[in-house]
Write the structure tokens for this entry.
Amino acid sequence: MNYLGIDWGEKRIGLAFADEVGIAIPLPAAVAASKKARMRQIETVVETRRVEALVVGYPLNMDGSVGFKAREVDGFIEELEKRFRLPVHRIDERLSSHSVEQGLKGQKRKPSRQSGEIDSRAAALILQDFIEEKRPGSR
């Protein structure tokens, strides 16, 4: 099955892809100026990579409760469901961007926030977590 991992943000949407091999790889982020153009970028990826399900990072509060950001993501997920008519899976994304930033610091790299690289790497972490949870014998 082909999956598209998504790390939603108001200005940048991180994207990652995984297929039956089960390894999530970051894709160029959707960083177009308008929301409409970012959705078209996602649509292009869904079509060209024959995506069958979406995996969206869900920003729970540190105590596990649903807060303001998670409700914003709920709205985004509704748009995805209407537009693509694909299954959408929510995955806890607490600290995913922070983990990516820490990993890049260890590599002595600091990508531009505007490039969306951090967002797409976070999307890959989110997608990989989802894949690991689905593997037989996990947890």
